[in-house]
Every structure is written in structure tokens, then in C-alpha cells.
Amino acid sequence: MVVVSKREILVEWGHCDPAGIVFNPRFFEWFDAATAGLFAHVGLPKPRLIERFGLIGIPLVETQARFILPSRFGDKITIESSIVIFKRSSFEVEHKLFNAGALATEGRETRVWAGRHPEDPTRMKSKPIPEEVIALFKGN
User: Which domain holds residue 112?
Assistant: First the structure.
């Protein structure tokens, strides 16, 4: 069972370009918030992640999106997010944005589980993702 988190957004005027269509960078902002929401959904909001696992964060190292249908001012959209691949110290998040029930945008992020570098605490270093975290997302 894959854990899916849902986030609803009302498209506001400030999300849009002069044509009233969502300005592309907003999608990546929403995807970032949806990833944080996905962790909160399994009981690991960012403050707990940082405290419990000694993380600096889960920095984004790659992202992409495919824009299928426009989203406009006043639309109510839903983003469904899930982690589709776990590797040793990275994971991939898939986002599907629906507008009026139709798939409007697909997004994907690759993120790294990162802590402080043991030899230089001003730097980051990837860390293995704990099995207990992976288990939460697999519904175990």
C-alpha cells in the first residue's frame, strides 16, 4: 500500500499571471508544500523530522513537471502526493494535480535525506533513510 496525501488549493489571484492562468513557479511551490504535508500525514512534520533524525532537511536535487491542462483563478485544485521510490539516501515524490477531476499537472521531485557533515558541521551530507521512515510510507 502506497501512502497518498491530498492537499486542496483554491487558486488565488496572486497565484496567476496576467492571463489569469497559474504562473508555472507556483506549481513547484505547491509541490514543496505537498511533500512537507506528505511527511506530516505519516506523523513526521518537519520539526519532528529534524529533531528525531538530526536532519538539516530533505533538499530538492531534481524536479520536473508536465503541464496538461491550465489552472485558473478561482479553480479548486487537489494535489495527490506519494513517494514512489526509496533509494539509500534519496527518494522520489510524485505529485498529481487535479482540476475539476481531470489530471492537469504532473510533477516529480528527487530529494535527499541530509544531515550535518561529520567533519564540517557547516556542510550537509546525505544519510541513509531510516527503515522506520520507509515503513511508514509503505503502510507498515
Answer: 5-137
